[in-house]
Specification:
Chain B: One of its GO terms (cellular component) is plasma membrane. The complex is a heterodimer. By secondary structure, chain A is mainly alpha-helical. Chain A folds into 2 domains: about 200 residues, no CATH class; about 50 residues. Chain A is built from 14 helices and no strands. Chain B is mainly alpha-helical. Chain B contains 12 helices and no strands. In chain B, helix 1 packs across helix 2, helix 3 runs antiparallel to helix 5 and helix 5 packs antiparallel against helix 8. Classes of the chains: A mainly alpha, B mainly alpha. Chains A and B meet through helix 1, helix 10, helix 11 and helix 14 of A and helix 1, helix 3, helix 4, helix 9 and helix 10 of B.
Chain lengths: ~350, ~325
C-alpha cells in the first residue's frame, strides 16, 4: 500500500510525469486495440479503399481527441483563455506553451496506431490491392479480361479463400508486394515522427530558452493555483457544512426548550463529552422530529454569528450595537492601511 | 518496502543510473520490436535489396534518435552549450564529456538491433540473395541469367510455388545465413573489444581532467533539477499566499458592505477561522464569481506585509516615513 502511495505521489507531484504516464498508457492501449480489432476486408472494388483508409485514419483521430479529453489541463487552458482580464494580465506565450505540450502528448497514441497499422500491412493490402501492377508482377499469358473484371479479381486478393485470380497474378506475390510497400511506409513514417520530435526537442534550447522557462513556470503556477483554490473551497465548504449543521441542531434545541420551558439548556458541567455531543436531543421523538425537519425544511445557507442574539457583538469593548457604524469604520480603516 | 524505496531513491539520485536504465530498456525494446516485427521479403528482384537493407538500417536510426530524445542529459548539454556565458564561464571539456556519454548510451540500442538482425539472418538473405553467384549452386548452373535472377530473388520466400521444393534454395539460404552470422559475431566481437580497451585504457590518459569533467557535468544536472524543484515549491507557496490574500480581501469587502454583527477582538474558533468570514450562499457565490471574472493580480507583497512574521522584513517603499514595526492604522492610500 505504501509502495503504491509512493508511486502515486511521485506521479502526482510532478504534473509532467503524470501526463507522460497517461500518454504511455494511451499508446499501449492503442496497440492493444489494434491487436484486438478483427480486421475484415470487404474484398469488393470500391469498398476496399474506403475500409482500409478508414481503419488507417479514423481511429487515430479518435485517439487524438481522446488524448485531449483525458488531459486535465484542457479545462485549465480553456479557462485561462476565456477568463476576463480583470486585475491580472493574460500572457499568450503561456497559453501557447500549454496548448503545444498538450498537443504533443495527444499525438503519440495516433502516431502509434498509424505505425502499427502500416507495419502490420493489412490496411494497405486491403486498400490498394486493386492498384497492384499486374503487368510487372502477373502472368503475361493470361486471357484478356475487361478492366472491371480485373478490378473485381484484384479486389479479392486480401481474401485468400475466395481468390480466383491465381492465373492473373499469384496471391502471395501480390500480398508480399503490398506488404513490403506498407512496411516501408510504416518505417518511413516512424523515422519522420522521430526526427521531428528530435528536432523540436533539440532546437528549443537554442532559441528562446528564457521565454520557455517563464512560460513553463507560469503554466505550472496556474495549475497549482487552481488545485489549491479547489482545496481551499472544499475546506471552506466542509467548515460551512459543519457550522450549518451545528446551528441547525442548536436551533432545534432552542425550539425544544422554548416549547417545554423547563428543561435546562445545557447539561451540567460534569456530564462529559458524550452528553455535549448529543446536542440536547435525548429521546426518540425529538430525534425523529429533527430528522423530519432536516428533510422537510433544510436550514438556509446563511450562518448566523455564534454570539447570543441579545448579546453584544463587540464583546470586550463595551459599545452598544447602536454605535455599530462607527467601530466598523475604524475597522475598515485599519485594514485599508494594507 | 524500504528496499524498494532505497532502489528508487538510488536511481533518482544518480542521473547516470537513470540513463543506464533507459539505455537498457531501449535495448530490450529493440529486441522485442525485432521479434514482433513480421519480416516479409518481397521476393522481387528490384525490391529485395531496398527492403532488406532498409530493415537493417532504418530502425537503428530511429532507435538512435529515440536514445537521444529520451536522455535528459542531452537537454542539459544543449542548454549548457547555448547559454550566454554571463558570470559563469563555460567549460568545453564538460560539454564534450556530456556529448560523448550521451552518444555512447544512444548507440547501444541500434547496435543491438543490427547484431540481432545479422545473427538472425533474414535481412541479409533477403537483400543479397540476388547477388549470389549462380555457378556455385547445382540447381542454378544451367539456367539463363534472367531466370536465375528471378529464382534467386525468390529464395527468401519458403512458400513460393516456384522454389518450394528446390534444394538450391536451401543451399543459397544456408550460405547467406552463414555469412550473416559470421558478420554479426565479428561486429559483436570488435565492439566488445573496443569497449573493453576504452574502459581499461582511459585511466592512463588524463584521469584528473576526466574526474573534473564528470563532477561538473553531474553538478550541472543536479543544479537544474533542484532549480526546477525550487520553482515548483515557490509557485506552490505563491499560489497559497495569493489565494489566502484573495479570501481576506473578499472578507473585507463583505465587512464593508454588511452591517451584521461580527466578533472582532476575540479568538475565532477553529471552524469560523476556516470560514474566513464567508458565511452565506450569496457571499460564496460572489467569491466564486469574482475568482473567475477578476482573478487577483500576481502580487503577494501586500499579503506578506500583513503577515506577522514579516515584521522583520525590509519595509515597503511607502512605509519609509513610519516605524517598520508599527501596525497602527493609518489612512494611507493604497
Amino acid at each position: 500500500m505504501d509502495k503504491f502511495r509512493m508511486i502515486f505521489q511521485f506521479f502526482q507531484s510532478n504534473q509532467e510525469s503524470f501526463m507522460n504516464g497517461i500518454c504511455g498508457i494511451m499508446a499501449l492501449a492503442s496497440t492493444q486495440m489494434y491487436s484486438a480489432f478483427d480486421f475484415n476486408c470487404p474484398c469488393l472494388p470500391l469498398y476496399n479503399l474506403a475500409y482500409g483508409l478508414g481503419i488507417l485514419l479514423v481511429p487515430p483521430f479518435i485517439l487524438f481527441l481522446l488524448g485531449f479529453v483525458l488531459n486535465n489541463n484542457i479545462s485549465m487552458l480553456a479557462e485561462e483563455w476565456r477568463r476576463p482580464q480583470g486585475q491580472r494580465g493574460k500572457d499568450p506565450s503561456v497559453l501557447r506553451y500549454m496548448f503545444c505540450s498538450m498537443a504533443q502528448r495527444a499525438m503519440i497514441a495516433p502516431a502509434v496506431w498509424v505505425s502499427v497499422t502500416l507495419l502490420d500491412g493489412k490496411c494497405i493490402t486491403c486498400a490498394f490491392c486493386t492498384s497492384v501492377p499486374v503487368e510487372t508482377l502477373g502472368n503475361a499469358s493470361h486471357p484478356r479480361l475487361s478492366q472491371g473484371e480485373i478490378q473485381r479479381v484484384l479486389a479479392q486478393i486480401p481474401c485468400r479463400e475466395i481468390y480466383n485470380g491465381q492465373q492473373l497474378i499469384a496471391n502471395e506475390v501480390a500480398v508480399r508486394y503490398l506488404r513490403c510497400i506498407s512496411q516501408a511506409l510504416g518505417w518511413c513514417f516512424v523515422l519522420l515522427m522521430t526526427t521531428l520530435a528530435f528536432l523540436v526537442r533539440s532546437l528549443r534550447p537554442c532559441f528562446s530558452q528564457a521565454a520557455f522557462l517563464k512560460s513553463r513556470y507560469w503554466s505550472h503556477y496556474i495549475d497549482i493555483e487552481r488545485k489549491l483554490f479547489d482545496e481551499t473551497c472544499a475546506e471552506h465548504a466542509r467548515s460551512f457544512a459543519k457550522v450549518c449543521i451545528q446551528q441547525f441542531f442548536e436551533g432545534m434545541n432552542t425550539d425544544l426548550v422554548a416549547a417545554r420551558c423547563h428543561l435546562p439548556r445545557k447539561a451540567p458541567a460534569d456530564a462529559g463529552e458524550a452528553a455535549e455531543k448529543l446536542l440536547g436531543i435525548t429521546d426518540q421523538g425529538t430525534m425523529n422530529m429533527a430528522l423530519k425537519s432536516w428533510h422537510r425544511c433544510k436550514p438556509p445557507l446563511h450562518l448566523h454569528p455564534p454570539a447570543l442574539p441579545t448579546g453584544n457583538g463587540w464583546a470586550g469593548e463595551g459599545q452598544p450595537p447602536t454605535h455599530l457604524s462607527a467601530p466598523q469604520r475604524e475597522t475598515a480603516a485599519y485594514y485599508s492601511w494594507v | 518496502m524500504d528496499r524498494f524505496r532505497m532502489i528508487f531513491q538510488y536511481f533518482q539520485s544518480n542521473s547516470e543510473s537513470v540513463m543506464n536504465g533507459i539505455c537498457g530498456l531501449l535495448a530490450l525494446a529493440s529486441v522485442k520490436m525485432y521479434t514482433s516485427f513480421d519480416f516479409s521479403c518481397p521476393c522481387l528482384p528490384q525490391y529485395n535489396v531496398a527492403y532488406g537493407l532498409g530493415i537493417m538500417f532504418v530502425p537503428p536510426v530511429i532507435l538512435f534518435l529515440c536514445g537521444l530524445i529520451l536522455n535528459r542529459q542531452s537537454l542539459v548539454m544543449l542548454e549548457e552549450w547555448r547559454r550566454p556565458a554571463g558570470r559563469r564561464k563555460k567549460d568545453l571539456a564538460v560539454i564534450r564529456y556530456l556529448c560523448s556519454s550521451i552518444m555512447q548510451r544512444a548507440m547501444v540500442a541500434p547496435v543491438v538491433w543490427i547484431v540481432v538482425t545479422l545473427l538472425d539472418g533474414k535481412c541479409l538473405i533477403c537483400a543479397f540473395s540476388g547477388s549470389v553467384d549462380p555457378e556455385k549452386f547445382v540447381g542454378l548452373v544451367n539456367v539463363s541469367t534472367a531466370w536465375a535472377q528471378q529464382l534467386l530473388a525468390k529464395v527468401p520466400c519458403k512458400d513460393d510455388e516456384l522454389m518450394r521444393n528446390n534444394t538450391s534454395r536451401k543451399a543459397v539460404s544456408r550460405y547467406l545465413r552463414c555469412w550473416s552470422q559470421a558478420l554479426g559475431w565479428s561486429i559483436l566481437l570488435i565492439l566488445i573489444i573496443a569497449a573493453f580497451l576504452t574502459r581499461w585504457l582511459r585511466p592512463c590518459f588524463n584521469q584528473a581532467a576526466l574526474l573534473q569533467a564528470r563532477h561538473w557535468s553531474n553538478y550541472i544536472d543536479i543544479e537544474q533539477k533542484i532549480f526546477e524543484e525550487t520553482c515548483c515549491e515557490h509557485s506552490r507557496l505563491f499560489a497559497h499566499k495569493c489565494i489566502l490574500h484573495f479570501f481576506e480581501s473578499m472578507r473585507q469587502e463583505i465587512k464593508l458592505h454588511s452591517f451584521s454583527l461580527l466578533r472582532e477582538g476575540e479568538e475565532a474558533e477553529g471552524e469560523e477561522d476556516l470560514l474566513r468570514g464567508i458565511t452565506n450562499q450569496d457571499q460564496v457565490n460572489k467569491l466564486l464569481k469574482t475568482w473567475y471574472y477578476e482573478k487577483p493580480p500576481l502580487d503577494v507583497s501586500q499579503a506578506l506585509q500583513r503577515h506577522p512574521l514579516v515584521q522583520e522584513r525590509s519595509p515597503l517603499p511607502w512605509a519609509d516615513n513610519a516605524s517598520t514595526h508599527s501596525n497602527l492604522p493609518r489612512h494611507t492610500k493604497v
